Amino acid sequence: MESKNIDILAAGNMHELFRRGLPNDRNMLSASALVSPAHYQMVIKAHEDFLKAGATMIVTNNYYVTPGVGFNPDEIREYSQTAGQLAADARGRSNRKEDIKIFGSLPPLMHSLRSDRTIERQKGLDTYLLIGEALLPSVDVFLAETMSSLAEAKMAFEGVQPLQKPVMVSYALNSTGQLRSGEEVLDSVRSLIEFCTTRIELLPGEPEGKNNLLCGILFNCSQPEDIAKAIKQLKEDEDVTNLLKKHEIRIGGYGDHISPMSKAGVMEESLVSGALQSVMDMEVYSKFAMRWIEDGASIVGGCCNIAPEYIQHIAEDISK
C-alpha cells in the first residue's frame, strides 16, 4: 500500500494509562496523570510507545480537563498546558521528531457522546479559547474530537479560531451511521465546511492573507464498521468529495476497540472464543483501517482501548 501520504493517529491515552497503572483519583479519569507530577513520566512513556509503534500523530492528554469533570478555569489552563508540554517532551525524545505532529485535544466540555448535554454557548467558546491558548506553544494542530453534533463542532472551531492554528474536527457516530445527535454525516460535513469557510471570510484583512483553518474531518470514538460507512458516504457523494478537495480537507478515522455487540465483534467471537483483545482482534481492526484508506482516508489510528500494539499492526499493514 502507498504509505507516504498516510498518517497514523494515536489517541487512546486514557485506557493506555489505566493499563499502566494510573489510579482514577477522585474520578478525574486520565486527568489524574496531569494533576500529580508523579505520573508525568507515565504520560511521556505512553506517547513514546505509540510513536515507537509507528504513530506519526499523537494527541495531548487533556481530554478530561474540562468543566464537566469539575476543573475551574485556572486548573484547565494549568493542566492543559502540562498536557501539551508532556506531548512535546515525548516528541523531543523521538529519533524522527521532524515527522511527528502533536494534536491539541479540544474535547466535549460536559459529557462525551451526549449531544443533549452541552455547555452554554458563550462559556463554551471561552473555555475552548482557554484550552487552545494553553496548548498553543506545544501543538501543531487543534483536534476537536468526539464531537456529537454539528453545533458542538462549530463551537470548538469558533472558540480557537482567533489563535489562527489549523483545526481538525472529529465526529462521534451512532450505530445507524449518523452523528450521535442523529444528524446525517453528509449534511454535517457540508455544513461544517460552509461554516468554517464563512468564518474565515468574516475575519479582518485582505482575502489573500486568510487561510482556511479547517484541515481535516475525522470520525472517532465509534465502532470501526460505523466509521467505514461514514467514510464511504463521503467518497460516494461527488459534491462533498469536491468540497473536500477544493478546501484541501483531509478525512480519516480513529475508532474504538471492537465491541462484542458490534457486527465485527460478533463475527470474531463466533470464529474464536476470546478473540477480542487478541492478535485476531488487532488484525481485524487493522483491516478496517485499510478499508478507510481505500475509501479515501489519509489519517487512520485508534481511540479507546487501541493500544500501541494495534498501532503497530496498522503501521505494518500500511507498509506492505
UniProtKB/TrEMBL annotation:
The keyword Cell inner membrane does not apply. PROSITE patterns: HCY (PS50970). It comes from the Eukaryota. Keywords: Metal-binding, Methyltransferase, Transferase, Zinc. Zn(2+) binds at C221, C303, C304. GO terms for biological process: methylation. One of its GO terms (molecular function) is methyltransferase activity. InterPro entries: HCY_dom, HCY_dom_sf. The keyword Chloroplast does not apply. Its cofactor is Zn(2+). Pfam families: S-methyl_trans (PF02574). Residues 1-318 form the Hcy-binding domain. This is Hcy-binding domain-containing protein. It comes from Peronospora farinosa.
